[in-house]
Amino acid sequence: MPWGFLELKDVYIDKMMEYNGLKIESCERVYAPSEDTLLLAENLNSMPDDYVLEIGTGTGFIALAASLKTKKVVATDINPHAVKCARKNLKINNISNMEVRQGDLFKPVKGEKFDLIIFNTPYLPSSEDEIIGDELDAAWNGGIDGRKVIDVFLDDLKDYLGKKGRIQLVQSSLSDNKKTLEKLENMGFEAEITALERFFFEEIVVISAELK
C-alpha cells in the first residue's frame, strides 16, 4: 500500500467505483482499492481454466476481476469486515464462480491446490507506534522490515500450488523486492517483476512467478 494509503482509504469509504463493468463498493474498516490494487488488476496473468486463490481480498476487487476471466476464484481475508464487504460486492455483481472465506493466509484453504495465487501483500515497514490498532492493520503492516507476512506466505506457498502453478504478488522496494525474487528462484520458480509504478518514497511492483 503506497504512502497515500491513509488518505485514500477515507476518500473511498462508502463510495462505489466501476472497473471493467464491475461495481465495487468500499466499506469502513476495509482497505479501499488504491494505486497498488489497480496496478495488479491491470497486470493479472490469469487463464480461462485457472482455479484461483486471492489472499487478503479486501473489497474483493481483484478476485472479482479475476472471476471474469477464470474458472473459479476463492477469496480470503483475515479481516471479518473485509469478508462481509467482498461478499456484498460479489452479490452486487451477481458473480457465480467466486466464494469468500475468512482466515489468515492459507488456513481457509487447507488441502487445496491452485493454478494461480494472488496476494497484494502487507508490505509497509512499520514500528509499534505506527500501528492503527484495528482490522486495517492486517492490510498494510509488514513489520519492521516489511517482510513479516511476505516471508510466511512464501514459506507455505508451494503446498498450495498445482504443477506449473503461478503466483502474482504486490510489494514495495521498501520491503526488498530482490530478496523476494531470490527466494522464489531458490524455491524452484522462474520469477520476475512484471509491472512497476514509482512513488515519492518507493516503487510498487507486481512480482510474477511460475514453478519450473
Task: Note down, in words, how this protein is organized.
The longest helix has 13 residues, at 80-92. By secondary structure, this protein is of the alpha/beta class. The protein has helices spanning 5-12, 35-41, 61-67, 80-92, 137-140, 148-156, 177-186; strands at residues 16-19, 22-25, 51-55, 72-77, 98-102, 114-120, 161-172, 189-198, 203-211. It is globular, with a radius of gyration of 16 Å. The chain contains seven helices and nine strands. The chain has a single domain, classed as 3-Layer(aba) Sandwich (Rossmann fold). The strands form two sheets. A seven-stranded mixed beta sheet has the order 5-4-3-6-7-9-8, sandwiched between helices. Strands 1-2 form a two-stranded antiparallel ribbon. Helix content is 27%, strand content 29%. Strand 1 and strand 2 (22-25) form a beta hairpin.
- Return the domain count: 1
* SSE series: HEEHEHEHEEHHEHEE
Helix content: 25-40%
Strand-residue proportion: 25-35%
CATH class annotation: Alpha Beta
Number of helices: 7
Descriptive tags:
globular, 212 residues, disordered N terminus, Rossmann fold, 7-stranded mixed β-sheet, two-stranded antiparallel ribbon, alpha/beta
